[in-house]
Amino acid sequence: MSFAETSSALDLLSSALGLTSPAPSGADSAERMMEEGMKKMTEKATLPEELNFIMCAIVAPIICFVGMAGNVLAIITWNRPKMRSSTGRYLTGQAVADFTVLMFFVLIDSLMAWRPEVKYSRAYAFFFCYIGYPGIFFAIVCSIWFTVGVTIDRYILVCWITKAKQYCNEKRANFGLILITFNSFIINFPHYLSFTLVDPPNDPSANASSHGNMSGTHAHTEVKMATVTQEVAFKETEFQTGASGQFYEFWIHCMILILIPWFTVFGMNVMIIRAVRRSNQKNAGKKTSASVRNCKQSENQITRLLLAVTFTFLFFIGTQCVIQCMYMKKPAGFNMFIVDSSFAIAKCGIVFNSSMNFFLYCVTGRRFRAELLKVLGVHVKDDQGMSSLSDRPTGSSSRHTTSTMSTTGSSGM
């Protein structure tokens, strides 16, 4: 190959790598361009790690702390005398599960992003293997299925009016919470077998102390080298890395524990909204204009709450599930760099979902806002606009519809 051809080839390489350097004139120039090209490729490869750090160390912790405070207020509010109901019990359980999810996320993902050296601590390794890692998945499963529970509760209140008194009460709700919690623990048990402790190597601090006669700079370098070569105090088990663990994570945990609740919540809420609208249309002619207006306002409020809470759940959980499945399976034809970068953001979807319910209650529920203000020591006038339809039925001809609307809206009013 002639010199001109070589120079042209190097120009093309420089243009492809996006470099702006003087025209190559020899081996040093070509070597420099290759080094710069590798540097750009390395920077591109670390983008998912940078996104993961931003989400876990900066964005998610802020959302977690705000969400934990909101969930505590939600628990207190739903347990006030005027808010106690089967729906309130399920939403209390969901708030407890969401608080646990946020707490464990901070103690696992955020803490490792802030202080990577905790992975070398045997005490933290024990917490991660047997409390933190399985605990966060247990709380996630409970939160998801508590959403299913409250959806079924609302479905019975609206679509099975004659069965509502029998099945929609606090005793039944408490039994449902216990049953969901027990089943979630059993089906989540393989996560307790996912990680195990490893015997740590020699303590690097001991090596550092044995070189006490060294200069400060040299001793510091030795400590840093010892820390770098130190092994993480926990590792994945053979079950987790084997076919059984991969089968469980993909088919059992992702498909069954997430997709089935996803479609159940979506389908039931569509039926709830349709049933509420049909009931109001059927009884509109039997009510006074004021009753029709109040009923319509209640319908709109319930619709907003159902759409807000449900589709927030569907969006964040659905997005996280799809991207996690692609991340695990790595299907052919997908740009894995984009998948890895998206996973760094999508993994925080459960954090957003666990933090937003309290604010959705505040935005869509007047009765919830009124009780919350009382919890915070702010007393408001309980006027007609703040009263629920259950406090003042408008007539015998509309008793069933009014009861349906008030009980269904108890979660948001």
Automatic annotation (TrEMBL):
Q: What is its main location?
A: membrane
Extent of Low complexity compositional bias: 394-413
Q: Name one GO cellular component term.
A: membrane
- Keywords, sorted A to Z: Membrane, Transmembrane, Transmembrane helix
The G-protein coupled receptors family 1 profile domain extends over 70-361
GO MF terms listed in the record are: G protein-coupled receptor activity
InterPro entries xrefs:
GPCR-Ligand_Int, GPCR_Rhodpsn, GPCR_Rhodpsn_7TM
Protein name, per record: G-protein coupled receptors family 1 profile domain-containing protein
**Taxonomic source organism:** Elysia chlorotica
